[in-house]
Amino acid sequence: MPCLYITTNVNLDGVDTDPIFCETTTAVASIIGKPQHFVMVILKGSVPIFFNGNKEAAAYAEIVSMGGINTEVKRKLIATLGTILENKLSIPKTRFFLKVFDTTAGRTISKI
Question: Which GO cellular component terms are attached (predicted)?
Answer without folding.
Answer: extracellular space
